[in-house]
Amino acid sequence: MGERSPGINVTILSGDLLGNDGPGSDALDMTRLDNVYNVVVGSGVDGTAILDGFTVSGGNAVLLTWDEPPGSAGLNSGAGMFNAAGSPVIRNCTFRANMTRSYHPPRAGACSISTAVRWW
């Protein structure tokens, strides 16, 4: 493990299923409609779950509706990683180009954390 160089040997967990996301595209861009909702889910796990040395990209946590049900904290959030009531260990990771549709309340594109015991 000491010989790893995640900055040089990049390993990407991508939610872009067709590989067609353009630079600067937003959450409602047509090229993002194929993307997965959450790239990584860490809900319900403990500290033995480790995500180390990855780039997480291309999540698109967007529901194509204007109405969000009450108490739906996971909707339109956590495109890169969604974590509810879990405590995974995240090390040496980069979250980029993960999108949400954020109106009110604000939502997290890279990571959404709810009731986590430990983070990073």
State the main characteristics:
120 residues, mainly beta, 0% helix, flat
Characterize the structure shown:
By secondary structure, the chain is an all-beta fold. It has one domain. The protein is built from no helices and ten strands. The strands form four sheets. The protein has a three-stranded parallel β-sheet, with no helix packed on it. Strands 2-6-10 form a three-stranded parallel β-sheet, with no helix packed on it. The two termini are 18 Å apart. Mean pLDDT is 78; it is low at 69-73.
> How much is the average pLDDT?
78
Number of domains: 1
Count of individual helical segments: 0
- State the total count of DSSP E strands: 10
Describe the biggest sheet?
A: 3 strands, parallel
What coarse outline follows from CA principal-axis ratios? flat
The N- and C-terminal alpha carbons lie at a distance of 18 Å
Strands of the largest sheet, in order across it? 1-4-8
